[in-house]
Amino acid sequence: MPGHGRHTRRWYGILAAMSGRASLVLAVLPFALLAAIYLYGSAARHAENPDDKVMPTVGQLADGIWRAAFEADRKGEYRLWVDTKASLRRLAIGLGLAALVGLAVGLNIGVLPIARAATYPFLIFFAKIPPLALLPILFILFGVEEKAKIILIFVGVAPVIAIDMYLRAREIPYEQVVKALTLGASQPEVIYKVVLPQIFPKLLSAVRLSLGPAWLFLIAAESIAADVGLGYRIFVVRRYMAMDVIIPYVFWITFLGYLMDLALRLWMRWGFRWVGEGEK
Amino acid sequence: MSATEPSGPWQLELKQVVQEYPVKGAGWKRVLDSLDLRVPAGELVALVGPSGCGKSTLLRLLLGMELPRTGEVLVDGKHVVGPSRERGIVFQHYSLFPNLTVLDNVTYGLELEEFTLLGKWVRYPRYRRRRKTFRSEAMHALEKMRLAEHAHKYPFELSGGMRQRVAIAQAMIMRPRLLMMDEPFGALDYTTRYDLQLYLLDNFYQTRMTVLFITHDLEEAVFLADRILVLSPYYVTDSGAANGSRFLLDERVPFPHPRVLAIKKDPRFGALLEQICELGLDPSRRQLYRERGPGQSAGGDAS
User: Fold this and answer.
1) How many domains does chain A have?
2) Of A184, A193, A279, the CB nearest to B98
3) I need a labelling partner for A141 at 20 to 30 A (CA). Which of A119, B63, B99, B231 fits?
């Protein structure tokens, strides 16, 4: 009987109206499922072989976390924090530089035809280099210290950000440029007072999307040559099959990435309320 | 063709303006053909014409975004060589900066006028003091436009009609010598459009600014303007087909200011509409238009 049901809102299909509680339950579900599978697998393996190292029990994991975070190692360092600090520093410098340079390049080739002609084809080409293939070159050129790792992140991320910023700059309507000029803006003022403020929040989106690749390049570089860092640690303890360290580290890296993503999202939401709405 | 001949100086003057664009392997395509126009200060001129007739091209010439192939474009007796704060513009879309509040949108030009990009930071204390003045001037303009309560909102929080009112305030606060409006009310609903028309007229009466109003809505054109210009490629010359658009009509609107809604019922209003409408039609369609009875389509779209 169409039109006479008690339920005016569907709960299925493309017209489904979700309640907040239902959304929450569905959001938690995959996490719970993953945990359940792990607990079951771990329990099963330990029932068969009490010395199993592949899927540590919750107790063993907690122990691993405790040792890494709150017990000093032979050098008197708290590994987890030392590794986190080193990795975050590399990531922040690499990603920060990539964001700055990407913004500057994208903005300029977006608004200046000469800069565009001279840079864009090269940029497209440059962006196609698989960054990891550069890693040996970077290690040879810059040594195995910090520089090579930071440059790898930069090289991997900056071209993508630059291209994105270029496209965003070109999206600025012609009308707005004309309007600014008729209000007395000079050409630099059009670039820095009309285009830049409008593409800046989009830089935050670009950085958000680059977090994944940036971590990838960081871990790759750390795994090959480093003496400290989250990626380095994972690959070192792999030799002892120390899953009780590896699993918490992977979880911790994921969590850090999530926090950065969240921070950028909040910055966008509170700092740039107008984004994506006032286009007309 | 000019309806009256007051002596110059002309606020806006076109002398034999021709605009052509290169066509791949086919020479030049003429869009505007020897346009002549003289507009005295304080006139509200409506420019209408079918889509693709070159209205936007003419607008770009007046803005200084491009230069004519031959001929001269003069505003206030000076050649137009580039965009300038002497010539303001209100667009239909993207009429405001989305990242600025209403108040900042209106003070935008005032700030640019006095402070350069770096000057703002070099002379920051002075800038802080002057900004207060700019803001109170902008607030005053917004109050006149019944927009004061929305001063701290962003454009996306405003209705289409409010946005256009802010855009008008933003352009008018610069006191341009010529205000151009490119279908400013084209996207608004009927009631809001009428409201803004009255609103524009009120502002016009107060400032007596020279306004060039481009529109698709013929009724709007006749209701607002002192003078109607029809730009159209649909004419026949002695040597055959037309090459580029010309002003096919330059007509004074026979109603006094301030305009009232009642003029729309005046027979002369309808007659003028029909006359304009026909000029915007391809000649092959004009016969049909006459047969079906003019008046049926009065107020219709010329495109």
Assistant:
1) 2
2) A279
3) A119
Residues A143, A246, single domain; the answer is yes
Contact between B132 and B113 (Cβ < 8 Å)? no
Contact B135, B106 (CB under 8 A): no
**DSSP structure class, residue B118:** T
* Residue A264 CB-half CA count within 13 A: 19
Predicted confidence (pLDDT) per residue in A226-279, tens digit: 889 999 999 988 888 888 889 999 999 999 999 999 999 999 989 898 886 544
Reported ipTM: the value is 0.87
| Residue range(s) defining the domain that contains residue A68 | 58-279
Q: Is B97's CB within 8 Å of A194's CB?
A: yes
Cα A54 to Cα A228: distance, rounded to the nearest angstrom: 24
**DSSP assignment letter at B188:** S
For the whole model, what pTM was predicted?
A: 0.84
As a whole number of angstroms, the distance between CA B26 and CA B22 comes to 8
Q: pLDDT tens across B13-63, in order? A: 999 999 999 998 878 989 999 899 999 999 999 999 888 889 999 999 999
For the sheet with B70-75, list strands across it: B28-39, B12-22, B70-75, B78-79
Q: Shortest Cα distance from B196 to chain A (angstroms)?
A: 18
How far does Cα A264 stand from its chain's mean position? 10
Domain of residue A81, CATH code: 1.10.3720.10
* Chain B residues whose beta carbon lies within 8 Å of the beta carbon of residue A180: 97, 108
Residue of A nearest to B119 (CA): A189
- Under a CB-based contact definition with an 8 Å cutoff, are residues B156 and B98 in contact? yes
Q: How far is CA A221 from CA A135, A235, B28, B55, B167, in A?
A: 7, 11, 59, 59, 53
Are residues A42 and A17 part of one domain? yes
Find the length of chain A: 280
User: In this structure, are A90 and A216 located in the same domain?
Assistant: yes
Reported as a single tens digit per residue, the pLDDT across A40-62 is: 999 999 999 988 888 999 889 99
Beta bridge partners of A11: none
The reply to whether A107 and A138 lie within a common domain is yes
Domain shared by A38 and A162, yes or no: no
CB contact under 8 Å between B117 and A188, yes or no, is yes
What span, in angstroms and rounded, lies between the C-alpha atoms of B102 and B85?
Answer: 19
> Do residues A44 and A100 share a domain?
no
